[in-house]
Amino acid sequence: MTGRWDVLVAGGGNAALCAAIAARRAGRSVLVLEKAPKFYRGGNTRHTRNMRCAHDTATGTLTGPYTGDEFMRDLLRVTSGNTDETLARMMIERSYDMLEWIQQQGVRFQPSLGGTLSLGRTNSFFLGGGRSMLNALYRTAQRLGVEVRYEHEVTEVEIDGRSFRAATVTTPEGKTRIEARSLIAASGGFQADIDWLKQGWGERADNFLIRGTPHNRGSLTRALIDNGVQQIGDATQCHAVAIDARAPKYDGGIITRLDCVVFGIVVNKNAARFYDEGEDIWPKRYAIWGRLVAEQPDQIAYIVFDAPNLEKFMPSLYPPVQADSIAELAGKLSLDPHQLTETIHDFNAAVVGGRPFDHTEPDGNRTEGLGIDKTNWAKRIETAPFYAYPVRPGITFTYLGTRVNDRARMVMKDGTPAENMFAAGEIMAGNVLGQGYAAGIGMTIGAVFGRLAGEEAAAYVA
Amino acid sequence: MSHSTPALIEADRLMTVCNSCRYCEGLCAVFPAMELKRSFTDGDLNHLANLCHNCGACYHDCQFTPPHEFAVNVPGTLAQVRAESYAQYAWPKAARPLFARHGTALALGLMVTTALFIAGFVAASDPGALWSAHQDDARFYALMPHNAMIAVFGAAFAWMILAITMGARAFWRDTGASQTGSRDHAQAAHDAARLTYLDGGGMGCFNDDDRPDDRRRMWHHFTFYGFLLCFAATSLATIYHYLLGWHAPYSWHSGPALLGIAGGIGLVIGPIGLLSAKRGRMPELGATGFRGMEVGFLLILLLTGATGLALRLLGETTLLGGLLALHLGAVLTFFLTMPYGKFVHGLYRYLALARHARDLRHHKTAK
């Protein structure tokens, strides 16, 4: 159709499609504008693999119950309480329903993937991964009559007071103006815009790798904030993990992640350790190392371990750097051989150990007497060949975005709710995630707020 | 690990990518099999390639397929490795070039054998029999005595069994499928009979685009079970002839005839469906350089089925002689080319499924 749409959805990932499907099922005309070409559609959803939803009993694909209360406790822990609790509780409450609703839209689940057993109870894994999930949502949306246009980026918005009127859309053929009775912004974070990242991180951002889509540059986020919508979060907050430094600048995805910090030590370019590698078990330690490496000189670090550990963790795309001695390894990494030898010598001498090694829970094998001790899983690095992975901060998505209320409605600068503007997904993730991250929660934010935004927009238009 | 062909080198690269991701492990047997290893010999990769049913789901589910710079195309790469593996294990070695020129071999074989049968019919009895055998009580045996038929087809069948066994033995050894037990074979038979892994993890396999449908599995069932029914018809007829002394021709409601009619229908519908699916299928999902082998195999099955049915329908007309020559030519060509074409895919896939069943069993025990 042409003319005025009931619901205009900016974005093409999980949040956008859940919004589009919900609004379309309520009988509204829905136009989805996706900035990327078809293959790259869906932003970071392409790279996801699971979603964290509350459930009271085990299911065919979940190994046990995960109540809303436990979910809330986990969220408070990973964010250090830095969350909008009302919104968070609402989201968790609505996540109960999401498991069934999303399957009704054609998404299929499977038991947790090999190498991710620690998430088997809490997280629902998509059969075939995030792109399979996304393909299912697109098939459903298009079958229902949602219109999807690729390579259409919303770059400007016309807002009259608290009310959205029209969007300027940039396409390969030029700019067009599209009117709609409501807007759902689900266009992701801005992490692919390095200049914007620099506003928070300074020149350090030049050394960051972007794990997902190169298309999320936050043009709509900027336009909304410039036109009176209230900003939430600051430009430094994001989901960042330590990934292989050899990964491409954009879109390296899951296969560049390294989960071997606990099996050795991590040193910076001065061949010095800088953080307790044994602080906590997988899900938590995974999400802190991006920021830790970002604080190191040149934003680079090296995970060093020895032969017995090579196959104890999930394999990744690039082979580790290998050498028969620590000095040789240092040479290959362009580190000072004497310094690295000394760091490892000191570490080995401080290992107390003596308990059975168990990387699935804090095992009490620690060092004693170092400036920075390793408090669990400490084992001497002594058996050749020696290995190292170079790592850099890998940004998954940013948290700065638009403030929303508990109906997914955007909030204006003066604190009043917008009339017909809603937001879902990464663009409003900062409402729930003031800092920190828990695996699969980005998809929960996208699906729950997406569906809610779609329903609310449909109700407004009615 | 070094590998002997570009396709194997690419398959090895992809297995490293896939093993780092594992998002596809719920789709089929290939990815769980891959997860059991971190380095792969040629034999391991040939095993994985033959375990792949080419449903295409992982191509559409993968975030790294072209145009992504990681350029991951598992079904296309494994299809290439698989097609090349057929030749790699074939016996005798001198016959290996036949795989890449299978279409030509089939066409030539069909022309030569059909012509020879016609010549034989004419030489064996009077030239007019070619057009009048339908009035003779002995029907085809008026054209070609039963013992002559048994001699020709028995010899071709024995050669085929020998060559296929030698190929399967080489595949079995190289892909390391020792210590498979009866449980593993039962599992493999079950998965082969159902085509468990040709359903994209439950939503159907992919063909023309990114929407799944399950028709290829259906067409394959028509073909495979049609083939088995035809085989059963021939076997039953052999029992009738030698054990019970009941000699052909058999009436349409006899056991061999009913089995043959049902099988013939399967061998007509199935290959036509598969040929049409193949025509619309995304080319990146398949191998290059083996079109003749893939299409030829379906065409010879179709011709065998269609001429068999035609003999049943038109066996009492003057067309009997010509149809019989064509049917026998098709069957004989099929027998002789079976070890050197697409037919071996069924056997190697079965063996791969058996090894996979064993590997999973051992893996569980080891845990």
UniProtKB/TrEMBL annotation, chain A:
This protein's record includes keyword Oxidoreductase: yes
Signal peptide: none
Record-linked InterPro entries: CobZ, FAD-dep_OxRdtase_2_FAD-bd, FAD-oxidoreductase_2, FAD/NAD-bd_sf, Succ_DH/fumarate_Rdtase_cat_sf
Pfam families in alphabetical order: FAD_binding_2 (PF00890)
Residue ranges of every copy of the FAD-dependent oxidoreductase 2 FAD-binding domain listed in the record: 6-434
Cofactor(s) essential for the protein: FAD
UniProt keyword terms in alphabetical order: FAD, Flavoprotein, Oxidoreductase
PANTHER family documented for this protein: FAD-DEPENDENT OXIDOREDUCTASE 2 FAD BINDING DOMAIN-CONTAINING PROTEIN (PTHR43400:SF7), FUMARATE REDUCTASE (PTHR43400)
UniProt protein name: FAD-dependent tricarballylate dehydrogenase TcuA
Organism whose genome encodes this protein: Arenibacterium halophilum
Automatic annotation (TrEMBL), chain B:
Transmembrane segments: 105-124, 144-164, 222-243, 255-275, 295-314, 320-341
InterPro entries: Citrate_utilization_prot_B (IPR012830), NarG-like_sf (IPR036197)
Coiled-coil region(s): none
Keywords: Membrane, Transmembrane, Transmembrane helix
Domain of life: Bacteria
Protein name (database record): Tricarballylate utilization 4Fe-4S protein TcuB
Organism name: Arenibacterium halophilum
